[in-house]
Each structure stands twice: as structure tokens, then as C-alpha cells.
Amino acid sequence: MKNVVVIEKMDHMGNGIGFINGKTVFVSKTIPGDKVIFEVIKETKTYIKAKVKKFIERKEDALSAFCPYYYKCGGCQLQNMEYEKTLEYKKERVKNILNRVGITPVIEVIKNENDKNYRNKIELKVSDGIIGFYEEGTHNIIEIDNCHITIACINTFIDDIKKMNIKNGDVTIRCNYNDELLISIKTEDDIILNKEDYPNKKVVGIILNDKCIYGDNKFIDIINNTFFEVAYDAFFQVNSYINSKLFAIINDNVKGKNVLDLYSGVGTLSIVASKNANKVYGIEVIPSAVVNALKNAKMNKRDNIDFILGKVEDKIHLIKDKIDTVIIDPPRKGLDQRTISKILEIKPESIIYISCETQKLSEDLKSFIDNYNVKKVYILDMFSYTYHCESVCILERR
Ligand SMILES: C[S@@+](CC[C@H](N)C(=O)[O-])C[C@H]1O[C@@H](n2cnc3c(N)ncnc32)[C@H](O)[C@@H]1O
Question: Is 294 a domain residue?
Fold first, then answer.
């Protein structure tokens, strides 16, 4: 029969792989052992990108997804596996990507204590009044009223968004340790805001097109008894439990007296590192995040941190002290050559490289492995049931 394939293995983006007529077929949301009729999304001379039309046979331990939107939504890829299996998949994935550049590290996987309802942030799309996520591989919206990997207090607010009369735009909802909500809306529409519509919700602030129209444009979160002010547009890890595990790794691995925290956000890792350090420098490009970071250092009574506003590549040369440890936590695009050269020139004893983009991480690590041993890699399951994971690499100077 045409368009039938048996899945033999998996790729690095959570797709099943099978082979027909000399072509590789990538079928999303399948696992080895599945036999499926597939629908072609894209076909080239060598490969076919496809999605499942119908399962003919399923691998005996394949799961039915816990989310009703799973087979349409572009958000999660791995709800067809037991949670423990998703961790095995991620470990294998990171191992293979690093092996390809000659790195064969000891890997420790840190699991997510709450593998469902863990996200403290949701980014919804609104199109013609329909609120939801992009359908897998398209820009069509699939309507959702509940995201099963997002914290409940955020989900209960999705209905309230519907009352705001947004026809087209983006809505981001964040929550903190106390289920308080910070809502950011980007739209050209005239929105309706009736605070009485949601009397039982702890709405701290609503920001419309970067202007605060209700309450405040920031809130306080708490991780491991440490306080963080977070502006609506500043980065904060989406999984607070796993963030606390990241803090513990930083705490255990910060060596020496002076620490440089590159891409420091609201100062989370600088503040953790400052406990055992003499001096910490953080560099961050978003002004509101640096304002938060300065306040966070004060709130947590740390007077040994300097935060520098600007691009790492433009500001790193300002650091004149001898640096013992460099923490690197860049955006998905990773490091630029100028920054890599400067870090090599600084010659820190240790480097802690945190990344949510394993492919880019492996490319960047190639620049360090002539001078550094990769002592250990932690895989933090920050984004359960997606193929993404957070890796923390501990590098020691030879
Ligand atoms: C993955 S986040 C890490 C933040 C922080 N370490 C944390 O754990 O919360 C990356 C941060 O880099 C910042 N950023 C992006 N490009 C930058 C650049 N060229 N220079 C400095 N900061 C940058 C982003 O605004 C963001 O705060």
C-alpha cells in the first residue's frame, strides 16, 4: 500500500524515521515499532516529511497522549512515550549530538518532579478570535482551553482572555510561586478589560503593547528561598522546579573567587554564584532585566555583584579582573566568535555552559575542547514531553 511505513528509529526532533523506496520518511508523533499510513507534508528527492493519517500497528508500549490536542498541536512531541522513556530518548539524543563532535561525557539526567502542569508561562496566539497554539508545521491556530503541561492557574485564565475581545494578536501569561498572574498582550484591537470578570484570579498586572494598563509590569518569584523580581519582558526559566536544580548545580560547581555570568537575565545565576564567590559580574542586554537584577541582588543582600547592561560581545572586554569561572547561558543562537575568543583569552579555570539548543551547544563546545575537558553534562528535563532539554556542561581547564 502507498504511504505506509514502519518506524525504525527516531531523529533529534522527536520524529519517527522509516524508509520507503530509497527515501527517508520522518513521521511526527511516532516511535519505533509503529506502522502508519502517513500524509506527506513535504517531499524532496531524498526525504519525506509527514504526519500520521492512521496507525495500522502501534508499538506495544506506545501511549495514548494525555492531551486531546497532542496530534494536532505543534507544542509537544513526546506524549506517545512513558515519561521515563522520554528521558532515555533525551539522554541518547544529547549523547549522539555531542559524540559527533568528539565529546563523550558522563551524563546525568535530572528528571522533572511534576512532569505535567509544570510551565509557568504560556504564549498563546489569537487569530480571528480563536485562541490557541500553532498547529504542527503550520501557522493555523488550533483552539485550546487547557494546556496540559502548563500550571493550572494559567489555564483557568484562558477563558478570561476570551472576554477581552482580542481578534488577532499574541497573549503571554506568566505565573509565580503564589499563582499570581502577569499578562502581556500584543494586539491592534480595542480590548475590553473588566477586572470584575475575573474576581478570583490573582492578576498582578496587564501589559498592552508594552504599556502597563493594569497593576504592575513585574512580579516577584521565589526559587530556593531566593527572591526574584521579574519584568514581563525579562527571561525567566519556564520550569521553577528544574530551575531550582540548575541553581544547585551552579552552587556545586562554581570554582574560585571571581565569576563572570554571561547572559545574566534577572541575575538568577549571578545571585546563586555570589554565595561562594568573591566577586560576580553579570552581562545582559535587556534593560528591564538588568533593573530587576540590581533589585534582586539588593533583596537577597548580595553586595558582591556588578551587572553590566549591553551585549556580551560588546561588553565582555570591560572585565579586567582575573576570572576563575565563566557561566554561559546564551539564547538559542549560542555564542558568536568574538565572545568565544574573549573567553579563551580570559582562561577561566572552569566554564559552565547552559544550553537549550544542543546542536548549537555542540558547535560552540568544539572551540573549547582543545583547552578544556568536559567533566560532566547534566540533562535537566526543563521541557517535559517535548524533544527539547536543557543541558549544563561542566568544563575544566587542562
Ligand atoms: C537563556 S537566557 C538566560 C538568563 C539567565 N541566565 C537565567 O537563567 O535566567 C538568555 C539571556 O540572554 C539575554 N541576551 C540575548 N542576547 C544577548 C546578548 N547578545 N548579550 C547579552 N545578553 C543577551 C536574553 O535577554 C536573556 O536574558
Answer: yes
Q: Using only C-alpha atoms, what is the Rg of the chain?
A: 22
Q: Which three cell numbers stand for residue 343?
A: 573567553
Return the C-alpha cell found at 237.
526559566
CATH of the domain at 58: 2.40.50.140
Q: Does the model's pTM come out above 0.85?
A: yes
Where does a domain end: 220, 255, 287? 220
Q: Write out pLDDT tens, residues 320-334.
A: 999 999 999 999 999
Q: Count of alpha carbons within 13 Å of 181, Cβ hemisphere only?
A: 25
Within 13 Å, how many C-alpha atoms sit on residue 194's CB side? 8
Residue 80 in domain: no
| Sheet (strand 350-355) strand order | 107-110, 372-380, 390-397, 350-355, 325-328, 258-262, 279-284, 305-309
Mean pLDDT of 188-199: 82
Atom of ligand 1 nearest to the CA of 289: 27
Residues with C-beta less than 6 Å from any ligand 1 atom: 235-237, 263-265, 268-269, 283-286, 289, 311-313, 329-331
Is 356 tagged catalytic?
Answer: yes
Calpha distance 312→359 (Å, rounded): 21
Amino acid, res. 260? L
3 state SS of 371? coil
